[in-house]
Design brief:
321 residues; alpha/beta; 434 Repressor (Amino-terminal Domain); Rossmann fold; 6 strands
């Protein structure tokens, strides 16, 4: 059988085209990665595309293109500049003064560590520089999770049992701003709300030695604020199925952020999936689906029974049975 071999010219054309195809594929992969990150961050914050468009002053159409991996080509050019300078892309878009060289070197070193080594490194840094008091941490119980998990109901019951104040962080934020949450977002946007949230959390931790705190569901999406919570409070993730979350929120007459959204359940599932890895950083997880209120309270009480001891020995990852 005669096998037709490619000509020298064809080989030359192939050699000329291949790098271009590789570059195009690399660009598409990078844009897809950026789009995924934008979509995941939006889901963690519980923001619809319409809300993000309003706060960012970027059209919904462009955001849809960005999240689908068809964003503006200029970001590729910026990446090329960063590569030519042999510097991370984030160093070019970093807001503020240029970070000190010690921070850059430390960041590069931490990036070289495995996941379990990073966890250990973080614990060592907190012990040395975090100023965390284990005894105080065990006296502060913080409940995290989506709306409808039972934070307000179970939190109030737990505070009464422990004879400590029960605090809802969202209510403190409203008091600080003098307007409801919805108005805060309208007036100040996501960034303004996050600043108020952090300020109120810091004040609670600094002024109240013992408490039970119910946090907003999206607090975990703000790294600095969530880290402050994790290091200063014994945290419990009240976990439920998306169906239970939806039913409980509707029963409360509150459909945020599902209002005027025909794909409410899909959005809720996406939000929960986007935050699951963050919520799971809590000291303990208590599953609230499929149990009565009394059963959930008993399970929560059991989960935090060793809070003081666990805080002294370092955060653990126990799940309530």
């Amino acid at each position: 059988m005669h096998v037709r071999r490619p000509s020298a010219k064809a080989k030359a054309n192939h050699l000329r085209v291949s790098p271009l195809l590789t570059k195009a594929a690399d660009s598409e992969e990078y844009l897809a990665m950026v789009g995924n990150r934008v979509r995941e961050l939006r889901a963690r914050r519980g923001m619809t595309r319409k809300i993000l468009a309003r706060d960012s002053h970027v059209s919904e159409r462009y955001l849809a293109q960005l999240e689908s991996g068809e964003g503006n080509i200029s970001i590729l050019l910026l990446r090329q500049v960063a590569r030519a300078l042999d510097t991370p892309l984030e160093s070019l878009v970093f807001v503020g003064a240029e970070p000190p060289v010690e921070l850059v070197r430390t960041t590069e070193f931490l990036r070289s560590l495995r996941a379990e080594e990073l966890s250990r490194a973080r614990e060592l840094l907190l012990q040395e520089f975090g100023g965390v008091n284990p005894d105080a941490r065990g006296s502060r119980i913080a409940l995290i999770g989506l709306r409808g998990a039972g934070k307000s109901t179970l939190g109030a019951m737990l505070a009464e049992k422990r004879e400590v104040p029960f605090i809802e962080l969202d209510r403190l934020i409203e008091q600080e701003a003098g307007v409801p949450l919805g108005v805060i977002f309208d007036l100040y946007g996501q960034s303004g709300f996050r600043r108020l949230e952090r300020r109120c959390l810091d004040e609670v931790i600094e002024r109240t030695p013992k408490f039970v705190l119910a946090t907003g569901g999206s607090l975990v999406s703000e790294p600095g604020t969530f880290d402050r919570l994790l290091t200063s409070c014994y945290t419990v993730w009240l976990c439920a199925t998306p169906e239970d979350h939806m039913q409980r929120v509707i029963a409360q007459g509150d459909k945020r952020p599902m209002a005027d959204n025909r794909e409410a359940m899909t959005d809720l599932e996406r939000i929960l999936a986007g935050r699951e890895k963050l919520y799971s950083q809590a000291d303990v997880t208590v599953e609230t689906s499929g149990f009565s209120l009394a059963e959930n309270f008993a399970r929560l009480t059991k989960a935090i029974s060793g809070a003081e001891t666990s805080s002294k020995n370092g955060r653990n990852k126990r799940a309530a049975d």
